[in-house]
């Protein structure tokens, strides 16, 4: 699931990605200006690793 924070008064916005495995939720939050696709790839790789490890 891809999310984006909302800003008030010019505050920075952030990309957030959530992925579920059998036992865990993987949450990644990108820094200001980081493209959401990079966050998705990192989250997918972490979830794939956890799934292979039976988590």
Automatic annotation (TrEMBL):
Gene3D superfamilies: Dynein light chain 2a, cytoplasmic. GO terms for cellular component: cytoplasm; cytoskeleton. GO terms for biological process: actin cytoskeleton organization; positive regulation of actin filament bundle assembly; regulation of actin filament polymerization. Keywords: Cytoplasm, Cytoskeleton. GO terms for molecular function: actin binding. It is found in: Cytoplasm, Cytoskeleton. This is Profilin 1. The lineage of its organism: Eukaryota, Metazoa, Chordata, Craniata, Vertebrata.
